[in-house]
Design brief:
191 residues; alpha/beta; Glutaredoxin; 2 domains; 6-stranded mixed β-sheet; 8 strands; 42% helix
Length: 191
């Protein structure tokens, strides 16, 4: 084997080793990102609304009662954007049913409302009849409420304080205890 041929083979081996090392580092980095990523929804997901007055929200419930968010001042309000065909919405629904039941026995109860996103009254009412949930469901027929809150996709859950300010945006499916943890922390901060 000639010297030139030997040098070429060595360069090829060194290049292969360098590429393998870079690929190895990239794979280790990706593995680290995957292992450190939280499987939970993002509480306080980015939103320009955080710390700002909640958008005006006037609509009707599926029972045809009028609803005005501004009239809820003095109460903690949770808005959960929902669609009856949304699988993450269906998965988190029992958690909301349990949360609402807890509020029935609380001295500092939170008002829970579902904002119906791109769905019809009949489907939503049938879903709630089959799966529980006695809290009001709000119409968002033209999507204006979702747009004003910047809802990317359902489910999303928003917490509004008694002064009408947006405090938390939870993007994605709730997990057990997350909503109550957020409310407890917020209530402690406002004491």
């Amino acid at each position: 084997m000639s010297a030139a041929s030997n040098q070429s083979a060595n360069r090829s081996i060194n290049t292969s080793r360098a590429v393998a090392a870079v690929v190895g580092f990239v794979l280790v980095g990706l593995l680290w990102v995957l292992l450190s990523a939280s499987p939970y929804p993002s509480a306080n997901a980015e939103s320009p609304l955080l710390g700002q007055p909640a958008p005006a929200l006037e609509t009707t419930t599926l029972d045809d009662a009028s609803f005005n968010l501004a009239q809820r001042k003095g109460s903690w309000v949770v808005l959960n954007f929902f669609n009856s065909t949304c699988v993450p919405c269906q998965i988190e629904h029992p958690l909301l049913v349990a949360f609402a039941a807890e509020q029935n026995f609380s001295t500092d109860a939170v008002e829970l409302y579902t904002v119906v996103n791109d769905d019809n009254d009949e489907s939503v009412n049938a879903y709630f009849a089959a799966n529980g949930g006695e809290w009001p469901r709000l119409r968002d027929a033209d999507g204006a409420i979702a747009v004003s809150f910047g809802v990317a996709q359902v489910p999303e859950t928003w917490i509004i304080d008694p002064n009408g300010f947006v405090r938390v945006r939870i993007a994605g499916e709730l997990n057990e205890g997350l909503l109550q943890e957020q409310l407890t922390a917020l209530k402690e901060m406002t004491k």
